[in-house]
Design goal:
SH3 type barrels, about 25% helix
Length: about 180
C-alpha cells in the first residue's frame, strides 16, 4: 500500500534525512523494524533526555536502549538499576541492569524479583532484574523516572537489593563462587 505523507522541514539538510528514512522504511528489513520500534517508543514511552549528574549505585532510572541496539539486545526505553559506584573523575558511563515487568521462565540464580513498589510505574507492579543483561551505557541514555505531572524521581534501592543485583551479575558471568560468603 502506497501512502503520501507531507513533512514540514525546519532545515534544508532535513530533506535528505527524511528521504533516507523513507528509503529505509520501504526496504522493510531489520533496519526498518528498528526505526518503527524507535518511532513507537517516541510516541508511547517517556523519553530519556540524559542526565548531567553522576548517579549513585542503587539508583533506579530509565534508559533509552533505542537506536544503536538491535534484537536480541535491549531495544526500548525501560527502567534500570545502576550497579556501578561513583568514580572520580566521572567518565559519563554507568553499569546498569535493565528491569523487566515480566517474570523469567524459568527463574535462575541470575534473576531477582525486586520489592513491590520500588519502581514507580504502574506497569512494574512486579519487577525483575535479569543479571545476564548487564550493560555499560552513556549518561545521555539515562534520565529520572516520570512519576506524575512535572514530577520526576530517581529512587534508591536499599543496600540489600543492590547487593542482590550485583550477585545476579556474578552468577550470569559464571563467577557464582564469589558470592558464597555474602
Amino acid at each position: 500500500m502506497t501512502k503520501t505523507v507531507t513533512v514540514v522541514l525546519n532545515q534544508h539538510s532535513d530533506e535528505r534525512v527524511i528521504q533516507e528514512l523513507a528509503s529505509c522504511l520501504r526496504a522493510n528489513d531489520e533496519a526498518a523494524k528498528q526505526l518503527r520500534d524507535f518511532a513507537d517508543s517516541l510516541e508511547n514511552d517517556q523519553w530519556a533526555g540524559g542526565i548531567k549528574w553522576q548517579p549513585k549505585a542503587g539508583q533506579i532510572l530509565i534508559c533509552n536502549f533505542g537506536l544503536g541496539f538491535q534484537r536480541p539486545e535491549m531495544i526500548k526505553i525501560r527502567p534500570v538499576i545502576v550497579i556501578s559506584p561513583k568514580v572520580s573523575p566521572w567518565t559519563k558511563l554507568c553499569i546498569v541492569l535493565p528491569i523487566s515487568s515480566h517474570a523469567p521462565e524459568p527463574v535462575l540464580p541470575h534473576h531477582f524479583r525486586l520489592p513491590d513498589g520500588l519502581v514507580p510505574n504502574e506497569k512494574y507492579k512486579e519487577a525483575w532484574i535479569k543479571g545476564d543483561n548487564v550493560m555499560t551505557v552513556g549518561a545521555h541514555r539515562l534520565d529520572r523516572i516520570k512519576a506524575g505531572f512535572r514530577k520526576y524521581v530517581a529512587p534508591e534501592a536499599p543496600p540489600d537489593v543492590l547487593k542482590e543485583a550485583r550477585r545476579c551479575v556474578l552468577h550470569s558471568a559464571g563467577m557464582n563462587s564469589l558470592t558464597t560468603h555474602w
